[in-house]
Amino acid sequence: MMKILTFLWLSLFSFYCAANTDTTAIKKHLKSITKTASYRNPENLNQLNAIADYIKKDFLKYSGKVSFQEYKVEGKTYKNVVCSFGTENQQRIIVGAHYDVCGDQEGADDNASGVVGLLELARLLKGQKLNKRIDLVAFTLEEPPYFRTEHMGSYVHAKSLKNNKVDVLGMISVEMIGYFSDKENSQNYPVAAMSKMYGNKGDYITLVSTNEKGKFVEEFSQHFKQAKAVKTEEFNAPRSLPGIDFSDHLNYWDFGYSAMMITDTSFYRNKNYHKKTDTMETLDIRRMAKVIDGIYIALLKLTKK
């Protein structure tokens, strides 16, 4: 009897957790974020703020706890957008993605794809009863010239968590999740020998962290892989490996939090990186949706146990 009950419980839980990321909504969001009058960079502050407003407006459909985290750089005000699920005093998981771009380009994969992931996660999380708090955070100023400075939106956010002694379980940076290829030699690596381990096709998503990844990263990665939503590989390597800290998670590492990046490996695969050719037409919407499904299922398993 116990085995039957366990099987039924697992079956119900799997059904309950089953994500249904909306590819039509993904396309709509990508178009709204990338096909704009000007490019969402610090030189076009009005456009950058318009995207922040768009993100906030969509978040508000799914949560009553949405706010801007504003800060100034050289007299100009920039905004992170924070959307929360769960109660204030619960242990917190941060899921973040940056909405700014590098220079004059649409930045569909880098990083409208990650931001759209947050918007879809908000829709999926609406009404869920969680035993931990989840904060979805759309960061500003991740790209050069502010990368690796205290002006990054993620630095400001991570520092505020530390200053306020918030109990953070871990952080996930959703950084470029839309570009896939089944062609031979479509995947490169910082070390050539890695191709023997991971293959030469860019047909998978990666879960990236350091060798000292921490309990949160281990558990999230396990749940993500068990969901089997999309082909997945893990990269755990020293922080000195080029590319392993090339996103917002680096600031959470610096403040002592367990953090990781989910990525299609950026410029090691997507040759449109930081170019005008990084458009939504180049993205694999179906597999991008599956990545979002995997994140959602893993988050539910972490917050309902």
From TrEMBL:
Claim: Signal is one of the keywords in the record: yes
Sorted UniProt keywords: Signal
Keyword Signal attached: yes
SUPFAM superfamilies given in the database record: Zn-dependent exopeptidases
Span of the signal peptide: 1-18
Highest taxon, organism lineage: Bacteria
Ranges where the Peptidase M28 domain occurs: 80-293
Matches recorded under Gene3D superfamilies: Zn peptidases
Pfam families the record matches: Peptidase_M28 (PF04389)
Protein name: M28 family peptidase
